Amino acid sequence: MIREINLGSTESVLEEPFTKGLGNLKFHHPAGTFAITPASNILFRAIIDHADLLHGVGFDWRSGIGCQAILAARIPAVQLVYGLEISEANVEIFKQNALENGVEQKVRSICSDSYCPFDEEEAREIAKLQGTVDFVVSNPPSSEGDDGFSFRRMVLEGAKDFLKPGGIVLINASFQYGSERVLSLAQPESGYRYLGVAASTERVPFDLTRADLLSCLRNYALEEHRGGMRYTFFTNVEADERVLDARSALRNYEEHGVSPYTKWQTHLFEWISA
Q1: E strand or H helix that includes residue 125
Q2: CA 185 to CA 103: how far, in whole Å?
Q3: How far apart (Å, rounded) are the C-alpha atoms in residues 178 and 263?
Q4: How confident is the model over 61-81, as pLDDT tens digits?
Q5: What average pLDDT does range 183-208 have in this prediction?
Q6: What does the alpha-carbon distance between residue 23 and residue 17 come to, in Å, rounded to a whole number?
């Protein structure tokens, strides 16, 4: 955990020097709204480390309580960030957090299913942005009933209608998804160029005592069994460079009670052309 990020049960603080000149930020996340996670933290790091790439107008896809959008809005060259969030409760807390952090004039929180706002006026506002957006940031959840990667595909596919040529996408996809799956987002016909890992943690446990993560791993193993792309995990031994697939990681846990390791990561893509 980065020391300068202090996590409370209903409030989190980002402090200097972690924010590298963007100031201190405080985020409220009461019960029933999105709480900051380790995956959130690595996207913060990517936004801060690549602040020179962020300017003009941006989207925060599945923006939650506004953390990424508000942080990006603190960058002087950024004019406006639209937070696209499906939960009305999160949208309301986003607005409060924007006011608390002094960026209410530089962000818009919109209740939306992906890039499609529910409100007709807001839908028209977003539609007018086609071809004008400079960046997208996103920490998507794992999708269910498939390989867990569908929301990441949705982010990049939908962004094509909005990004300018040369626009960038900072998107979270942790190590366990495997490089093949990440690189599949930038196939030649996609219109994107993959620019690499923008931020990464060291190895961290993929804690299978958490029911949600155990469910994910079982779904990953099933996807491999169906012939899908391989997942990648580290063992729990720091010096061991071997990489396990999902089926091996699950078997190791079921037989020995040992969780595998992963890395929280943010990846950088550039939109080239339609």
Answers
A1: helix 120-127
A2: 32
A3: 11
A4: 999 999 999 999 999 999 999
A5: 96
A6: 8
Name the DSSP class of 185. G
Fold of 5-202+263-271: Rossmann fold (3.40.50)
Query: pLDDT averaged over the chain?
Result: 94
C-alpha span between 136 and 41 (Å, rounded): 17
User: What are the DSSP calls for 141-157, one per residue?
Assistant: PPPSSSSS-HHHHHHHH
Do strands 133-138 and 261-262 pair parallel, antiparallel, or not at all (unpaired)?
A: unpaired
Element (H, E) at 218: helix 211-225
CB 173 within 8 A of CB 182: yes
Region 109-124: mean pLDDT is 98
Per-domain boundaries in the chain = 5-202+263-271, 206-261
Quick one: pLDDT band at residue 241, thresholds 50, 70, 90?
Answer: confident
- DSSP notation for 54-94: --EEEEEET-TTSHHHHHHHTSTTEEEEEEEES-HHHHHHH
All residues at 6 or more sequence positions from 21 whose CB lies less than 8 Å from its CB, including other chains: none
CB within 8 Å of 8: residues ≥ 6 apart:
none
Alpha-carbon distances, residue 240 vs 200, 204, 234 (angstroms): 19, 14, 8
The answer to whether 134 and 167 have CB atoms below 8 angstroms apart is yes
Confidence of residue 87 (pLDDT cuts 50, 70, 90): very high
Interhelix angle 211-225/246-256, rounded to 10 degrees, is 130
Q: For residues 12 and 27, give the distance between their C-alpha atoms in angstroms, rounded to a whole number.
A: 5
**Distance, CA of 11 to CA of 28 (rounded, Å):** 4
0.70 surpassed by pTM: yes
